Amino acid sequence: MRTARRPALVDRPPTELSALPCRAPLPAHHPDPVLDVVVPVFNEENDLEPCVRRLHAHLTETFPYPFRITIADNASTDRTPCIAARLASELPGTDWIRLAEKGRGRALHAAWSRSGAPVLAYLDVDLSTDLAALLPLVAPLISGHSDIAIGTRLARGSRVVRGPKREIISRCYNGLLRSTLAVGFSDAQCGFKAVRRDVAERLLPLVEDREWFFDTELLVIAERAGLRIHEVPVDWVDDPDSRVHIVSTALADLRGMARLGRALARGRLPLSALRRSGGDLAPELPAGLARQLVRFAAVGVASTLCYLLLYTTLRPVTGAQAANALALLASAVANTAANRRLTFGVRGRGGALRHHLKGLVAFLVGLALTSGSLAALHHAAPGAGHRLELVTLVAANLAATLLRFLLFRAWVFPARHDARPTRRTTGSS
Q: Whole-model pTM?
């Protein structure tokens, strides 16, 4: 057994660190391991040896740099530690560590913290992901193009074989991430990721989770700081012997999402320690949830005043329903344009038509709410006066505004591409 040792830099508070330097490619001739692939395991006496031998053979034959394989055994109670020790003694460039507690995130945190390799990766021991995607995964990190790379089973070009239950769960989880935390990456939980060491040194002290939410938390924090995430479509075959407890894991993930959302909204994470210097990022990073809410509310107030003025002007000429529709349409177009620029930081004409078309869908939702409220008012009180109509419409508009914000954040401007570096996708086969 080898004792995990962490570099001093990982233990320093991130707020004391300067901004990350500009990314640079690694030299072609590197004497030390460039890549450290961590295989976290718990009671994997059957799968560990064939996995590590296959991985070692693949890297020996295809990877052009020196590499290391680290087996991270987190509290196994079967023969896994003995097998790991034997593999480390037999296969050149293979190491192992043993932790006293379980948790995939804990194993990755310990293994990555002690590693000196400039590129750190991990994959699941079942090798569900085709190893042909490993070089495309780490190449953008070696070249200096990206900060983090992830395999995705949900992008075009991926080839996935798994049952409907896991497919639904995966898509629901990632959809929930997009709707609540407004993430731009497509697959948070694929067990196939890599990160540059200089980025990991800043990220690891900020990631609290030590279980299955570790990956998601790391990615969300990195994305909010404006780091570049590269996605690789993978060929992936489900392991029928998976030991993940779906219900307990899902509940833990929901708690993690709530905790992380609160931390981001309250500005508790020192994201500035993750930003790159030297103009590597776009001039403006995406606003956090709290700032977006404030800006959206300000735009909403102006839009509502515009809407009420138009409605009051048009009603004597067109009637209540037509005045409501015309006023809402005009204010919705202006609202989408203002939020595009001010709230979500999207500049230029790229995607403007798509954004406005999606904004019109949100407008139709608002129209249904406000028109429905007017219809309900006139049905319940046929003689309702103009003031009661305005009160009803204001209340309905508040509900429509909240729903529109959620739609804007999760659907209309989900990735905020103009405020972030562009992601590029490379096929795996």
A: 0.66
